[in-house]
Amino acid sequence: MxxxxxxxxxxxxxxxxxxxxxxxxxxxxxxxxxxxxxxxTASRSLQRNEDFAARLRDKGxxxxxxxxxxxxxxxxxxxxxxxxxxxxxxxxxxxxxLARDGHVGSIGEQKADQCMAxxxxxxxxxxxxxxxxxxxxxxxxxxxxxxxxxxxxVVSNDPNLYEGTEMKQPPTYNFVKAGxxxxxxxxxxxxxxxxxxxxxxxPGGYFANQPQPFLxxxxxxxxxxxxxxxxxxxGAVVFLASDASRYVTGANLMVDxxxxxx
Length: 262
Ligand SMILES: NC(=O)c1ccc[n+]([C@@H]2O[C@H](COP(=O)([O-])OP(=O)(O)OC[C@H]3O[C@@H](n4cnc5c(N)ncnc54)[C@H](O)[C@@H]3O)[C@@H](O)[C@H]2O)c1
Description:
Elements: E1 13-17, H1 24-34, E2 38-43, H2 46-58, E3 63-67, H3 73-87, E4 92-95, H4 112-140, E5 143-148, H5 159-162, H6 171-191, E6 196-203, H7 212-221, H8 234-241, E7 252-255
Parallel strand pairs: 1-2, 1-4, 2-3, 4-5, 5-6, 6-7
Helix pairs in contact: 1-8, 3-4, 4-6
The structure holds nicotinamide-adenine-dinucleotide.
């Protein structure tokens, strides 16, 4: 098999949580679909996922939309049952969902109970979805789990970047994203012997019309001189999902324009 063939996801089934989201979610799903995978996206709104899947089908891809809530373990079980009964297998799991509405306020504004409430939904959700979906992967003897962390799972926010803006930097986000990276290493170590790989992608900031002072400071600090756009994450997810990365597990692939180099 040639090297380009190893990037093909033909015949694979991929589930992308929050895969219909307007920022990274839809980019991740489109990339996997273009590489040949059957793509299932799922988040709280069934309509949004079905509409997005219909748009992918219009482009000639194989795509489906489902509904689930990452902070509800029963909902994860239902999602697993639905995926397995409808598609019979799962080869690729991309965890992009984040119960972001919980991550509010900066450190001076958050109390311990708020911190617990917002972080626990994401922690328990990530724990549970990996724990449940690894089962069919073990049975198949192969699978790739990809968790979407962040530069803020690796380094702290620089408070100077946000000065003079209303942008918040909730520390719970850093707890969750850092924990995700080491949980991924744990999964890699425990499930490697079954042929299941687990890796993280840690993106930098996505350009979303942030306030000008923030943008200028960000662009000045990041080696590649700009924030991320839709296409920047796509190569990384296809690489980690496919046999092109068949000896890569437990890695945290920084897709950050060099943000964490210094
Ligand atoms: N935007 C950035 O700059 C950035 C940078 C680094 C990492 N990330 C990570 O990328 C991932 C995608 O974030 P994004 O910025 O593209 O969009 P986002 O913040 O809109 O993503 C959150 C997604 O999670 C879904 N979601 C929220 N609560 C949910 C729940 N309870 N159950 C199921 N789904 C739920 C939402 O529908 C949404 O699509 C996140 O994990 C985020 O931490 C984002």
